D-inositol 3-phosphate glycosyltransferase (Herbiconiux moechotypicola), 419 residues
Amino acid sequence: MTHSPEPNTAPDAQTAPGADPRPLRILIGADTFAPDVNGSARFSEHLASGLASRGHDVHVVAPAAGRKHGTWKEVYDGQVITAHRLHSWRWYPHDWLRFAIPWRIQQNSSRIIDEVKPDVVHFQSHIIVGRGVSGEAKKRGIRIVGTNHVMPENMLQFSFIPKFLQNWAIGLAWAAARRSFIRADAVTAPTRKAADFFEKATGIHDIYAISCGIDADSYTPDFTPRTENRVLFVGRVAGEKQIDVLLKAIALLPADLDTKVEIVGGGDQLKNLQAMAEQLGLGDRATFTGYVTEEELRKAYTRSTVFAMPSIAELQSIATMEALASGLPVVAADAMALPHLVHDGENGYLFRPGDEHDLAAKLEKVLRLPQNELDAFKRESLSIVSAHDIQRTLTTFEHLYRGEPVTDPAVMPPSSRKA
């Protein structure tokens, strides 16, 4: 099967004919933001800093990371943004997640929007903050862009909802998403697959597929011959990531490969997976680092042989894009958006979701590749990720913020879609 990447090839907003060079005042509403570590938070952080680097006045509304709340300046990637941190509570089923107070979100959103007077509001989910800022922006006639990073199905593990009620709860969650996203002038998702999934679940059409994007130049590929076999996973250590499948696969690999596995990230399943690694006899071949700095993360990519992503619920997977930018072949579950990044037999392999035997077989294929074939996989990873450059993503969103046509051929404009 042939897969094609979903590049953002909109022309640069500063050079496109008729483009409006005027800096914008942008309000980003995020239910999860730095220091949180997840795909949505990382995208919002890089979006905010990237827009600020282009001269825009960027404000972010997000839950406070602790007890202190209020408005102050924060710096990301060397860029200054204004953060409006809302009083938040800890969501105790989760190991670190905090949320803004639901019954105060309308009042807080109204106050912040009236203070900031943004040209556009860009919300990242419908949960609490997105619902508040989108509703208040709609009342004031402010342009709204909404991006969905959420699958309600993934949130069930952090709820107390009994299994027999979970399908009902998922339906309610998607209905709530529709109520917020229907307000937006433009709705986006990170991939075409994620956009199609969202359309089916909400009944909202004309969804733009826009990559979250990464700064590929920040990562360091290494083409020197490997002296060890090291498999890397990066992400939340949570149930839907199916890290248990990866550990079982590592235990199935032939002893002569002496394969090591490194799990980078934290989460509620950390202790359970550490115990599983011991039970499987992996011993010191399995390393769980917990959360690490950006510098340590980049080094982990560079020193690895292959990246593994067993998750079945990726709307894009920033970690997989970072692996590609580090020149790694990838073995990933054939699920959701991962096939957009992993082209089977070209820069890695896809395996049957949940099947540790198939995952082990695909990992072994990569680990036994001759150096020249491994290098070919690595070069293809670098080629694929080039279509996901953060600058293209920023330019595309600038067009949406201004209500300008989006010319990216991978992003179908509303006029060409059927409702």
User: Anything to note?
Assistant: The first strand starts at residue 25 and ends at 29. The chain has two domains: 25-213+389-416, 216-388.
